[in-house]
Write a structure and sequence with these properties.
Elements lengths: L29 E5 L4 E5 L12 H16 L4 E4 L21 H14 L5 E7 L2 H6 L4 E3 L6 H12 L7 H4 L4 H10 L7 E5 L16 E2 L1 E2 L2 E2 L1 E10 H9 L6 E5 L11 E8 L7 E2 L15 E5 L2 H14 L3 E3 L22 H10 L9 E5 L6 E7 L7 E7 L5 E6 L8 E4 L5 E3 L4 E6 L4 E6 L21 E9 H10 L5 E6 L7 E8 L2
Parallel strand pairs: 3-4, 4-5, 5-6, 6-15, 8-9
Antiparallel strand pairs: 1-2, 7-13, 10-12, 11-12, 11-14, 16-17, 17-18, 18-23, 19-22, 20-21, 20-23, 24-26, 25-26
Helix pairs in contact: 1-2, 4-8, 8-9
Length: 514
Amino acid sequence: NWFRWSAPSAHASNPLMPADDDVHIWGSLGYRFSPKANANYLSYWGGQPSVDYTSPSWRAKIKEILEHWIDLGVDAFMLDYPDGYIGAGSDNSGFWDYTPDLLKSAISNVVHSYGQGRVGVFAEIYISPQRTNEYGFNGSIGDIWDQSYAQIVANAIGSASNSDLDSAFSSGGGVDTSVATCYHSSGESCPIVWENLVLFNSWFPGAATLGGYLCSKGQGAQYEASVSGTMRVEACFAACAEDASCDGVTVGWEAGSASTGERTVSCTKIGGVDLSACEPLDDPRWYLNSSHGPSSSSFEKSAVQKTTLSLAINLAGGLQAGIQQSGNGAWFRDVAWPGSANAPALPSLLSAVEQSSPFSLVALRSTLATTQSSHYAMLRYSALSDGSAGVAAFNLASTAGVVEVSLPSSFASAAATNILTGETLQVQQGVLQVQLPAYGYAFFELPSLPTWAPDGPLDCTGRGVSSYKSKIRSVPFAQCLLSCLEDSQCTSTSLDWDDPGNDASVTCYLLGGV
């Protein structure tokens, strides 16, 4: 009785499609036919039968399964589409219109208790950190299902413009909202968010960020030259860089052998590319239901640097980078992508960010002004823990340049230490100047700022409560705290949360003498 079965006579004369064929009705609640049971069970997708969480025997079994994998040493569990779990709310039209107690007792509490706080529970919930928190999950996806926020980062790099880049983090339900949710709960629960990176992007000018292309001589390319043998994907791009006629590469994904321990590809250099004449490949979201993506796809010659930059921007913003699709768009496959073997740059970046307190996944984020639209920078600040602060600077342009970053007055003459190289730069009159290569990035640690202690749901804005009060309407939560630090009369803040759990904006009161 792990499933919710239909009455014996239901659908008997017209069973629905069997599991192997019903991917076309994925996401539509209904009865699926089981040839083994010769009966129909309630589910969203026959490929992933939905068990009934109101069943005591199923809850006992899932507890046994979770404890088994924890004993084997797993670090976390990922729940696919938890709002489709039968008996946990999915059998009503409102989806999440139910209390979280059932899933918390059946999954989250079991994992956290048996795993003694070492093992996490993550969920495929999109841009809803408040629900993530309510269900006891440790993290969810800080993006819309169609990777809209990830595409914003890719488009900013492709256009070399920061005009809309901040919205990748500040939009509703994104990483800024998730971190603000942590502070709204006074630090008692701080779920993190991650984002599926856009790795199928060809990076050719004018290309769609989610769709791929296949270019060859006579089909979008005027020049074509094969590179002999198989190689790592970065070696293919290196061969292109040495050829003045090369604008990009066409990668053959099926050339590699898993037994070698490395994911290798075949390589063809292409030049004189006219993207409008190349063969467009399908939107990679549809590869979810296939065993693999296209056998070959094409990339612009700087795809490695651009992909690595997109990863760096997401990490700097507080997102845990997720790799679910590969360079050919296939889901959950051992296939390379531009930058996947970019040693030592990628491992060094991941290790440095992981060990840097101001770039933790729950540190506050605030955009910083730069002098050029092709540059971007942000401040990170661990306001509730150790007060550590850091700044990340990015060059979105195809040429090297000096990124000039305006910092808060607290750092007017501070020393900034590069967490990747150990180099120290001096802030001059509140401006940090960073020399960066094309598509380059740098992460710096700054002197610590004061820490904040939450006092809970207190309203200290009334007449006579404070000797000083200044009101700022609808600003990002991080900016409210930073504004107080910049105001000599401010010693505390009081916040009206505009839409906690969905928006990081607050009405900010700067207070003194409370």
